[in-house]
Amino acid sequence: MELINKIAAIPLFTGLPLNQHENLAAIALQKTFKRGQTIFAEGDEGIGFYIILFGRVKIFKLSAEGKEQILHIMENQEPFGEAAVFAGENYPASAQSLVETKVLLFPRQAFVDLISKNPSLALNMLAFLSRRLRKLASLVEDLSLKEVPGRLAAYLLYLSDSSAGADILELDISKNQLASLLGTIPETLSRILSRMGKDKLIKTTPHHIHILDHQGLAQLADGKKRVEPPPAGAGGSQ
Predict the structure, then answer these.
(1) Could you give the 3-state DSSP secondary structure of residue 146?
(2) What does 29-83 look like in DSSP terms, one character per residue?
(3) Whether residue 114 has pLDDT greater than 50
(4) Is the CB of residue 28 less than 8 Å from the CB of residue 104?
(5) Model confidence pLDDT, tens digit, residues 26-80
(6) How far, in Å, CA of 238 to CA of 236, rounded?
(7) Nearest-CA neighbor of 56 among 35, 40, 70, 38?
(8) Does 124 have pLDDT greater than 80?
(9) Which domains does the chain have, with CATH numbers?
(10) Is 13 left (phi over 0), alpha (psi -120 to 50) or beta?
(11) What is the mean pLDDT of the segment spanning 222-230?
């Protein structure tokens, strides 16, 4: 019953009848990963998709030279790996736990069989994943088309929105990982954080960023406001 309650609380499955929560619980496998443990690697067979019960997971790709590009940071109750499962393909990127993480694994074939018997489950998931795709598409646009200060502002606003408008954001990823996610280098990120702090847009501590001016960040993300760029020769924006 405890597992059924956990599944019922996951946004992806919200609103489904009890019997479908019971069916999902019957095929779900609970797995725990230590900090830094690989969950799956790019090219691995798509054996199933995952939902985080607690913890944090980075989704990333490695270049031929071994350079890491973080695509997304997944948090509590978020699904990942579902694209490969539904397409019957290998995982297109790698997943690694950033902290000790507990997940539910829904094996591909068992889940496909379940969906074929319960079309409403597929419709519910389609609605949820469509909403998430719109948010992620907007975030990708922000992170690819804006200058680094705008990317950072957009990402902080995204984190705030994902946390019900929270002003204090917990940062349990390293500065190197955040820089990778934003497509820049740590030195440039440090200078921009410092500049945004001086402009009283944010206040930083070792593990948190406190948003002081949501409107100012929105203007920066929209290109209506600028922060002084890092000094020449300090890495610049990428």
Answers:
(1) coil
(2) EEEEE-TT-EEE-TTSB--EEEEEEES-EEEEEE-TT--EEEEEEE-TT-EESHH
(3) yes
(4) yes
(5) 999 999 999 999 999 999 999 999 999 999 999 998 887 888 888 888 888 999 9
(6) 7
(7) 35
(8) no
(9) 2-136 (2.60.120.10), 146-221 (1.10.10.10)
(10) alpha
(11) 74
CA angle 156, 166, 212 (to 5 degrees): 65
- pLDDT one-digit tens code per residue, 131-180: 777 766 766 666 666 788 988 998 898 888 877 778 888 876 788 888 88
Amino acid at 115: I
Record the tokens describing residue 217, joined without a space.
């960040």
Give the pair of three-digit tokens for residue 183: 């497509």
> For strand 68-74 and strand 48-54, is the pairing parallel, antiparallel, or unpaired?
unpaired
Exposure string for 20-58, b = 16+ CB within 10 A, e = fewer: bbebbbebbeeeebeeeeebbeeeeebbbbbbbbebbbb
Element containing residue 119 per DSSP (H, E): helix 119-145
Lay out the sheet containing 202-204: strands in order across.
Answer: 168-170, 208-211, 202-204
* CA distances to 5, 7, 56, 131, 212 from 97, in Å: 24, 21, 6, 24, 30
What is each CA distance from 121 to 14, 18, 105, 126, in whole angstroms? 10, 12, 17, 9
